[in-house]
Specification:
Elements lengths: L32 H19 L7 E5 L5 H9 L4 E4 L2 H14 L4 E4 L8 H7 L2 E5 L2 H14 L4 E7 L9 E2 L3 H11 L4 E5 L9 H13 L4 E3 L6 H6 L4 E4 L1 H4 L14
Helix pairs in contact: 4-5
Length: about 260
């Protein structure tokens, strides 16, 4: 069955290049980033040892969305260099000064991306983790042609076929991957997934690994604070961790604090 596009995502952009009020991080105490990063690195190294994988074979991406500049700067000072944001406008407001002070930062986009922000994503990020529909693939290809920048791309797969969640459906993944690579020429380096909450993630990690292998893709962006050890055991090459490094996500107006 052909993949269905989702035009409702391409909503008009906000006029300002800063996160809306409901997504601004609230001030609060910054956890000790050096201690948290050291503990997290030990956990990751142990997970690699148990899986028989070389240390350093898995990239730790610190999910800094909704976090204050102070919290992110503290993680940078502790040595972390890969960070992820979920909103183009938040990254544009937060990162220019931080990147100027900390050479070698690699910025990842992990949230749903609107096509009208494709150029900003291509110019502002080094890796895009949420390529998931034909209109976005076409917009990214056009933006790459215009700018000359070609950030690595992960195709997001909805391994649980959850209607409320982003990602290409499983039954459309093969065709969409072929379109991304053969029609649009995107630099697809791997696949990404978000397993259903409250369920064993391992079958979803295995499914993603199998699909990636079938398409000759080495990259697997999978695993978060609660399940990254399982993801490493199943072949993750990138883990995306927020709470384990920064502590509980600050409360956003109108909703409970995040738990990822």
């Amino acid at each position: 069955m052909p993949h269905r596009d989702r035009p409702h995502r391409d909503r008009p952009h906000r006029p300002r290049d800063r996160p809306p009020d409901s997504h601004r991080p609230e001030p609060g105490p910054v956890p000790d980033p050096a201690a948290r990063l050291a503990a997290l690195t030990r956990r990751l190294d142990e997970a690699c040892r148990r899986a028989g994988r070389p240390l350093g074979s898995v990239t730790l991406v610190a999910v800094s969305k909704y976090r204050s500049r102070d919290a992110v700067a503290a993680a940078l000072d502790a040595g972390q260099r890969d960070f992820a944001e979920s909103r183009v406008q938040e990254a544009r407001a937060k990162w220019p000064q931080l990147r100027a002070r900390h050479p070698g930062v690699r910025l990842h986009l992990v949230g749903p991306l609107q096509t009208n922000k494709a150029t900003a994503a291509v110019t502002g990020f080094d890796t895009l983790h949420s390529v998931d529909r034909p209109s976005l693939a076409a917009a990214l290809a056009a933006a790459m042609a215009r700018t000359g920048r070609r950030p690595d791309c992960f195709v997001q797969v909805n391994t649980g076929d959850e209607p409320q969640k982003s990602g290409v459906p499983l039954d459309g993944a093969d065709a969409f991957l072929k379109e991304c690579r053969d029609v649009h020429g995107l630099p697809v380096v791997g696949l990404m997934c978000l397993p259903p909450a409250g369920r064993d993630p391992r079958p979803h990690f295995r499914l993603l690994r199998s699909l990636a292998a079938a398409h000759g893709l080495a990259g697997l962006s999978m695993g978060m604070s609660d399940d990254f050890e399982a993801a490493v055991a199943e072949g993750a090459t990138v883990i995306r961790v927020g709470r384990a490094l920064f502590g509980p996500r600050p409360r956003r107006a109108g909703g409970p604090p995040g738990t990822r």
